[in-house]
Amino acid sequence: MNAQVIAVVNQKGGTGKSTTCANLGVGLAQAGKKVLVVDVDPQASLSISLGHSQPDDLPVTLSDLMGKVLNDQPITPGEGILHHAEGVDLMPSNIQLSGMEVSLVNAMSRETILRQYLDTVRKQYTHILLDCQPSLGMLTVNALAAANRLIVPVQAEYLPAKGLEQLLQTVGKVRRQINPKLLIDGILLTMVDSRTNFAREISALLRETYGGDIKVFDSEIPHSVRAKETSAEGKSIFAHDPGGKVAEAYGNLTREVLQLEKQRAKSRAGISR
């Protein structure tokens, strides 16, 4: 196995990155994939939503392992990785990761520290999902340098085009300078309120603005109070409300992501013939 590394990224907060990361991770695990989700955000929303309500008390987190990479110290197999009952593994984070971001500024090959950590675990998984912090700082650049694919969740309640421009510029820069293989899987509309036409308008606007270059996923994640409750329970939406609209939407997204992989593998096979 050599894992597909998918970063879930948007420098705007509150777009549903952590929820998407957790639920897509569990969706892929239910489809028989071997999944590691990595919390690359010092706020630790992903770690909390997967049941670790006090991340600052965890003995080993991502910042410890990135620290080992920085200091050329060996990492033992599976070190710090936590197992979740729904079949995903988690590399948690906590507030210490903010300090790591400061240390990275002066580090040699500072953009690839996360990638070097992932190289130690990538053979054990089919998919590694990275939950990025809501900024375009050094940690997010590390995630973009380590990923081969991106999913961009966008809240369907306001016009996100400006923020997207900034993100796409950063992606372009990372492609040119560090990671030429980085692909954007697509834009995912989240918190969609079916009672308004907002989502339809924004979806049309996004397709109009970026549709030629970037896919907008057909799956849209509905706004739901139940989805918000899941993080307090440490469960995915599939366990919390399996028959609900949000679980259905994340199930559809999982299928779309896997379908995209198949198409790419096919076209690669076609090229290499």
The portion of residues assigned to helices is: 40-55%
Number of domains: 1
Question: How many strands, what sense, and barrel or not for the largest sheet?
Answer: 7 strands, mixed
User: Number of helical runs?
Assistant: 11
CATH class, anyone?
Alpha Beta
- Class inferred from helices and paired strands: alpha/beta
User: What is the overall shape?
Assistant: globular
Fraction in beta strands = 5-15%
- Write out the CATH superfamily name: P-loop containing nucleotide triphosphate hydrolases
Number of strands: 7
* CATH second-level architecture: 3-Layer(aba) Sandwich
> What string gives the helices and strands in order?
EHEHHEEHHEHEHEHHHH
**Low-confidence parts:** none
Order of strands side by side in the largest beta sheet? 3-4-2-5-1-6-7
N- to C-terminal separation? Answer: 22 Å
What does this structure look like?
With 273 residues, the protein is an alpha/beta fold. The protein has a single domain (4-272), classed as P-loop containing nucleotide triphosphate hydrolases (Rossmann fold). The protein is 45% helix and 14% strand. The chain has 11 helices and 7 strands. It has helices spanning 17-30, 45-49, 62-70, 96-104, 113-119, 138-146, 161-177, 198-210, 225-233, 237-240, 245-272, and strands at residues 4-8, 35-40, 82-83, 88-91, 127-132, 149-155, 183-190. Helix 1 crosses helix 11 (245-272). The radius of gyration is 18 Å and the shape is globular. The two termini are 22 Å apart. 47% of the residues are buried.
